[in-house]
Specification:
By secondary structure, this protein is an all-alpha fold. The termini are far apart. Helices cover about 90% and strands about 0% of the residues. The chain has helices at about 1-25, 30-115, 115-120. The longest helix is centred in the middle third of the chain and has 86 residues, at about 30-115. The protein has a domain at about 40-130.
């Protein structure tokens, strides 16, 4: 029975707490304190708003720099890719020239072994002549 009374009393206090807090907040003492603190609160809110605007401006500048950096990187990669392709084309031409020179050299050696002295006296094929 005592536990039930305690629970009922506790429930009533919990229900009444917002009403007590509201009446305490509206007391003349609190109203006067609020009146004194309002200008300071407004000034602090204005300062925060100014700081937020500065932060937003800085974020915009940072984003613009980031976008410019990404574009520069992409351009550099495209240029590098172009250079790699050009280098690959030169390398492929060199490989083909070497292969052609070796084909002719083997044919020259084969003709020399068959007894064609003119083939034996020819200079070794130079891959630069095949490019």
């Amino acid at each position: 029975m005592a536990v039930a009374r305690f629970i009922i009393g506790l429930t009533a206090m919990i229900a009444a707490a917002p009403l007590i807090a509201q009446s305490a907040a509206e007391s003349p003492k609190n109203v006067a304190a609020d009146a004194r603190e309002m200008p300071q609160t407004a000034a602090l809110n204005a300062q925060v708003a100014g700081n937020n605007a500065a932060i937003e401006a800085q974020n915009g500048a940072n984003q613009a720099q980031y976008d410019a950096d990404r574009a520069a990187y992409a351009a550099a990669m495209r240029e590098h890719h172009h250079d790699v392709l050009a280098t690959d084309e030169v390398f492929i031409r060199q490989q083909l020239a070497y292969a052609d020179a070796m084909r002719d050299y083997r044919a020259q050696v084969a003709m020399c072994k068959r007894g064609y002295k003119s083939a034996c006296n020819l200079p070794t094929p130079d891959p630069r002549n095949y490019m």
